[in-house]
Design goal:
Elements (H helix, E strand, L loop, with lengths): L1 H14 L7 H13 L2 H15 L13 H22 L1 H32 L2 H8 L7 H10 L6
Helix pairs in contact: 1-5, 2-5, 3-4, 3-5
């Protein structure tokens, strides 16, 4: 059951498409976002990042100590529990009953996006992302966009 719950929350935060948003799920989204502190968002960012680093395509880029991962997961679980059981209990129930799982997933996807926005807004992250510009050929990209044809040679 524990693995199922963790997978459920990972999918809600990272993979959900927040396109569906009924009134009750919007109220849940608002409650989730307004009820998280900066520390809560940091805990969620660390958990999402740690989970993603387990993928074989990127696992060689970072090594996460199992004890550290356990603490990261414990902190994220505390955030989820605080939000669902304490801060947004009524909204969680109403969203699930009224809007179903799609609405519930939408609310948590909004929370995940809010947490990730904090990560992506960091100046050091932006500088690292801007490094990509060094390796792009702007002329080739411009031609492709303007003509709609492949620029392969």
């Amino acid at each position: 059951m524990r693995n199922t719950a963790a997978l459920f929350f990972a999918l809600l935060l990272v993979c959900s498409n927040p396109a569906f948003a009924g009134e009750k799920s919007e109220q849940l989204s608002k409650c989730l976002v307004e009820s998280t502190t900066q520390a809560d968002r940091t805990a969620l960012i660390r958990w999402i990042f740690g989970a993603v680093t387990q993928h074989p395509a990127v696992s060689d880029m970072t090594k996460l100590d199992p004890k550290e991962w356990q603490n990261i997961s414990k902190n994220a679980a505390g955030v989820f529990q605080k939000l669902i059981a304490d801060k947004c209990a009524r909204q969680s129930r109403e969203a699930l009953l009224t809007d179903g799982m799609e609405g519930y997933k939408s609310a948590f996807a909004t929370l995940g996006q809010t947490a990730m926005t904090g990560l992506m807004d960091d100046p050091s992250v932006n500088r690292s992302i801007a490094d990509l510009d060094k390796y792009l050929d702007p002329e080739k990209l411009f031609k492709a966009v303007m003509t709609g044809t492949s620029q392969e040679k």
